[in-house]
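**Fold in tokens:**
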Amino acid sequence: DVPTDAGQVILVNSDNIKVENLNISNTSTAVELWGTTNSRVANNNLSNSNNYGILLNSASNNEIKNNAVNADDVGLVMISSDNNTFTDNSFSSNLIGMNLYMSNDNYFHNNIISGNTIYGIYLYAVADNIFTKNQISNNQYGIRFQEVPPRANTIYLNNFINNGPPYTIFYNSAQWVPDNWNSPEKITYSYNNNSY
């Protein structure tokens, strides 16, 4: 496990590491996972980084859970990182909340992406990611897609609230109309105290 007084965490080609219960601020990037697998980043407060709150580069099969990532240039950056799970995190008051680049088969559930100056979520050349029950609110752009092939990702039961102007959902050109905006199977959900 990483010591609780760490001022920055950089994992390189690591496996089965726990990064938990840290308060990290005023560094370049708070937590970096390079070629790291089967690790857990949880219950951390990461703020005021010059670059990124959390960086995953060629990292796979990691769990990122219940972190507060605030006031960074970019809250989360993923580069060529696949099969990771993100639940119950907050990416708020950054320039960009989440930036995924060529990262596939990741799962995002019940995260808050709010109050980011430019993009809540920026997706570039990604596929087979699932976004469900996230709150994307009060960003200039709720979610932007660039170079994303048609029907590449699945996005359903998210709350897009008060994003823009100019856009809640922004595609880089008319030829790109990606993603499935419905659940892959029949599900039960609640709205205004009613079940559907």
